[in-house]
Amino acid sequence: MSVCTVDPAVTGAACGTGTSQTLDLTPRRVQTFSIAPGAGYLWRNRAVAGDALLAGGLVTASSDGLITLDGVDIPTTGSRITLAPADVPSTATLSVATSGQGSVDVVPDAAYYELGQRVAFTANAGESWAFERWETDVTGNDSPISTTVTGTLSIRAVFVFRPRVYLPLVLLDR
Question: What is the value of pTM for the model shown?
Answer without folding.
Answer: 0.51
